[in-house]
Structures are given as C-alpha cells and as structure tokens.
Amino acid sequence: MSASPSTRIEHWINGRSTPGTGERRGEVYNPATGATTGHVAFAADSDVDAAIDAAAQAFPAWSATPAHVRARVMFRFRDLLEANRDRLSEIIVAEHGKVFNDAQGEVTRGMEVVEFACGISQLLKGEYS
C-alpha cells in the first residue's frame, strides 16, 4: 500500500468520517522507510465529546437489541473482515511494518475474536430461554 503525503486520516464519529475541530495534526510514517505517508488529526475536547455523545445516543437501541440479532451484526462484520482481508493486511503492513503473512495472521486473529464474541449470546441463555 502506498499513501501520498496528502493522505488525511480523520475521525470516525456517528457513522461518518469527520475532520475534527482540533488544529493539531501529527505525521504518519512508513515504519520501514521513515517516509511520511499522511497526517492524522488530533482530537480536540469537542471531538471527544461528540464521539461520547454519539455512543451514548446509540447505546439504548443497541442494548435493547436481542443478543441473537447483535450476533448477526457481528457475523456480518466478520464476513467483511474476511472479504477485505488482503486490504486490511496491506494497511497493517504500511502502518506497522509487518511482513504481509504476519499481517494476514493478525487479521485472522481479529476474525477469531469476532467469532468468539458471536458465540457469547449462547452463553447468556438460561434454563428456559
């Protein structure tokens, strides 16, 4: 994966990318070469507050969603991880300097964690559920 120095990494708040309100930025480096590959916006207090507010607003509906429905959402997430495994691995290589095979192993481990989380709803069942 190659990124130009103009690559801007933004915040993800309430389901969308946002540049944030902070003025501070940091450079992102390719760990293998030391070259600058982009810039990341540092969050201002208002950005953090917006993220917390979005999470607080989403929580009631999500927590009221039955566990088996939440598991379906997580299985879909796992499917997306698998479908984008190579792309995610390329990002890990660029951001962390890992070799591609190690990066793929990291994505696979992430998929295993999601699969484990998907099975938790079965553990929540009682004698009569």
TrEMBL record:
Keyword Transport set for record: no
What does the record list as coiled-coil region(s)? none
Q: Which Gene3D superfamilies match?
A: Aldehyde Dehydrogenase, Chain A, domain 1
Query: For this chain's UniProt record, which GO biological process terms are given?
Result: L-valine catabolic process; thymine catabolic process
Q: Which GO terms describe its molecular function?
A: methylmalonate-semialdehyde dehydrogenase (acylating, NAD) activity
Domain Aldehyde dehydrogenase, first and last residues per copy:
24-127
Q: Where is this region: Disordered?
A: 1-27
One Pfam family here: Aldedh
Family annotation (InterPro entries): Ald_DH/histidinol_DH, Ald_DH_N, Aldehyde_DH_dom, MeMal-semiAld_DH
Alphabetically ordered keywords of this record? Oxidoreductase
Protein name listed in UniProt: Aldehyde dehydrogenase family protein
- Species: Saccharopolyspora flava
